[in-house]
């Protein structure tokens, strides 16, 4: 909070303003609401909504930053990110009492949004640097690692939502309006899913050709559930979909190229796109060898990667297709942002399947946003609890039998399980 004091001066007043906005929950919008407003856009209405909604979203996530482990909060990169959020919050709260009934106020607000967006451009990379700084200097225990994973998911999801609001306002009312365009802000009412998929594949293939001097081909299958021409369109944000698919293609290409090093013809990547009544499903399949089941969950952990970590000091070496460990976790957040999901399934020794689920109906595609409340605070303070299930290791794996956990013993001594076990034991003898 030292940065907060330095930037905003009156600490008590600042904390009161932050506490005031953090007590409100963010107001999630659906894609349909974005579209309906954009078709009859009113700049003043957008201003009146954003002048309070943006501080609320910022305040909610800023309260969580103060709950992070002390060592992480004191990392230079984390302090820098915190200072950006504090400055953006200070910039936006100046508009809370502005009515926006003149053009100067509206123009000033647009300029402020542009500054906020530009200021937060490198939040992901800078926060990642801060986490790596702490890991290298202090190390992680399980509780700290879980808290950081929990926080990063919420920080980056909050960032996606804030940028979505800013982009919609800027694209609809900013100075650099592209006209004419079928897009409504950043949303394409008739987003061609296969078209975006092909763009993502082509760009990932370009990187693969540069790094491996070859790349696997792509096979596409479509099913729209009818006898109509095989065109699958949906109301969605193309840039979000591109981000997800580009990351999946990069991973699949790297796996195929490294699994079949000496092959003359590499196995193709197969993409299946299906349109159902509730979901649009995209399946990306590769024959890249797969991964052990024990490591599947690790793929969505920040800073975990199956690829070697790139050397950031060597600016002359072209970046490989992976290595920082943020691609899949961020891609899953983009999928979940409008109530979709990203899941991975692996057949070890053969390949992997990535399943992307997106809401087919724009009215059901509501923003998923983090909310700061007592449950959030409790998670950071308590961390993880002792497991009351056996582990995957043998009880004699270390030469000593392990006993019951204290948590399990308490539940048997005080709960109904004790009587059940006594009764069952009597029946056996």
From TrEMBL:
Gene3D superfamilies: Alpha-ketoacid/pyruvate dehydrogenase kinase, N-terminal domain, Histidine kinase-like ATPase, C-terminal domain. Its EC number is 2.7.11.-. The gene is LOC106816990. It comes from the Eukaryota. It comes from Priapulus caudatus. Residues 238-362 form the Histidine kinase domain. It catalyses: L-seryl-[pyruvate dehydrogenase E1 alpha subunit] + ATP = O-phospho-L-seryl-[pyruvate dehydrogenase E1 alpha subunit] + ADP + H(+). Keywords: ATP-binding, Kinase, Mitochondrion, Nucleotide-binding, Transferase. It is found in: Mitochondrion matrix. Belongs to the PDK/BCKDK protein kinase family. SMART domains: HATPase_c. It holds the Pfam family HATPase_c. This is Protein-serine/threonine kinase. Its main location: mitochondrion. PANTHER family: [PYRUVATE DEHYDROGENASE (ACETYL-TRANSFERRING)] KINASE, MITOCHONDRIAL, PYRUVATE DEHYDROGENASE KINASE.
